[in-house]
Design a protein that fits this description.
Elements: H1 2-25, H2 35-56, H3 65-89, H4 92-101, H5 109-115, H6 127-130, E1 139-140, E2 146-147, E3 151-157, E4 163-169, H7 173-194, H8 201-214, H9 217-230, E5 237-238, E6 251-255, E7 260-261, H10 265-270, H11 275-293, E8 295-297, E9 305-309, E10 316-320, E11 326-328, H12 331-346, H13 349-358, H14 365-373, H15 377-382, H16 391-403, H17 405-414, H18 417-436, H19 442-462, H20 467-495, H21 497-509
Parallel strand pairs: 5-10
Antiparallel strand pairs: 1-3, 2-3, 3-4, 4-6, 7-9, 8-11, 9-10
Amino acid sequence: MARRALKIVSWTSMALASSGFYLYSNKYLDPNDFGAVRIGRAVATTAVISYDYLTSLRSVPYGSEEYVQLKSKVHRRSAERLRELCCANRGTFIKVGQHLGALDYLLPEEYTSTLKVLHSHAPQSSMQEIQQIQDLFQSFEDTPLGAASLAQVHKAVLYDGRTVAVKVQHPKVQAQSSKDILLMEVLVGAVKQLFPEFEFMWLVDEAKKNLPLELDFLNEGRNAEKVAEMLKRFGFLKVPRIYWELSTRRVLLMEFVEGGQVNDKVYMEKNQIDVNEISRQLGKMYSEMIFVNGFVHCDPHPGNVLVRKCPGTGKVEIILLDHGLYQILTDEFRLDYCHLWQALIKADMKGVKKYSQRLGAGELYPLFACMLTARSWDSVNKGIGQAPVTANEDVEIRNNAATYLPEISQLLNRVPRQMLLILKTNDLLRSIETSLSTRASASSFLNMSRCCTRALAAHKREQTCSLLKKTQISLGESLSLWQINLHELFLRMRGSWLGNWVFALLYWLSPTPH
């Protein structure tokens, strides 16, 4: 018996030693790719973060200044641990971390600022892992132009001389994604048992729904062509052409287009690109997608939105990249959302309450309005178009994200799933506007008003067969659009040198009251 046990131990030791030597000597095998390592790391990180929250705040009076300061430190430590987990496990974990990092006005600042770096520090696959596709090209640059959570992009030249961008999926992401999502589902459920007030299952549900679509690059190619056709009236928009003959579910070939990131003010100044014009065009483009078409590009972080002056014509273009993640809005949701934004712009509080509740906010509609606009409740009541965001108001909103985190997580779990990606998209666009110093400009609200007016009028026309009714609706639409254009002209005149001179002259000529 003892001899048999010794034999088993000897063989086991030899197997372990051989495996260890193989792993050590084989530089292409990464221990991080083993399920046990990934699961163990995720479980350990979740346990440490949960223990930190349970014990660190226990002895401090709730709501005191010391409590607030200590909670901020716990948030920061936890966010850093979460970032390290995402970087180590890669793939799906980085994708989810990027989603959290984009929710600037919905999560505590400690989390969003810490996780935001995942957009620009995604790991790269080695050339050995993607070498099977290199023979298809006359030349292929080894260093990627950019690496993301699910793929990386290389510059290459085809044998017919065309310069292309080649998007290559990271080799192990497909196999790991379903297991990673299941693991996240279990861990989020466990955390909910410890902290019942935090509802983050919506995040897992979104990943479960969207990740298979993002991993299908043929779907991404179709999205790119659809949005290019849908927004073809915008001459400033450039969507790179897809080359289908060499594209597959894991490799996507596109026209190669260069430009600077949309938040790079230095690049724009150097190339004489007007930041205000870029901000207006970006607002037009997204208002059209959300309110009119209901087909929304939901990942507009700066790496996916480039700007350039078109070679030859000198015309300024916005280049829209990465078309894997789109949200399709139902007509009911889209029209309620149009009504809600019209109410917010006009400070119609009855309309704000009505349409917020129709979109699932319930009694939390004031919080929902603040989340949607990233404005204080006081500003919402006065009208979000009446005054720009102040630095103090921005700080107040970010602090409230930490204060009302349980209510925010409850609300995110309650609203229609279509709203989740819209909120993420809103925050990413606001981040770009903040970088360009064009946040909450009057022109952005005017563009939204135009699109809402057009969308609601088109819906009304579809609902009637009467030619007279359709004519009345069209006349009403034209009148509303004319009023918006007149208001925009007034604002532009007031902001110009000539306009200021005219207004000063009119004031001087007006009779002085006695």
